[in-house]
Predict the structure.
Amino acid sequence: MPPACILFKHNKPKPATFHGLDPSVMPVFPVERSIALKGYSVRRKQVPMCPAFCLTDYKVQGSTLTSAVLDLKDDPTIRGLDRHRKFCSTYVQLSRLRSSKGLHLLQKLDMNDLQLGPDPRLLTEMRRLQELEKQTMVAWEGDKRSELHDESQPDERI
């Protein structure tokens, strides 16, 4: 038999309030329903509550979470997700957590589920940009030294 009532405290309370309860607390009462099944009448009483919600990896970008239940199991039947996209999705999901203590996995993982990586073209571009950064810093340091040298020479425009 379900309880007479469940008191649910919402993080972002709605404007509805109940006399004698904190504004963030909402009572949830059981409901009773009857259905006919194979010639039998079945009656059940339950609390209409599902204490869960979900967020996509795109939705949580920029957020910091104290805990999360993640489904990181690699599902090869999902179409449209290549290794790079799966890698990015996994990175975003894991990087939103404050610590590993808040990480809860929906399914058991094996090493094959984590054999993901960025697109090789992205890695090539990253290396190219890093080399360009080094060249820029060397050129900038050289320009800076020659400016200092020029400033130490007396001004001949008299």
Q: What stands out?
A: The radius of gyration is 30 Å.
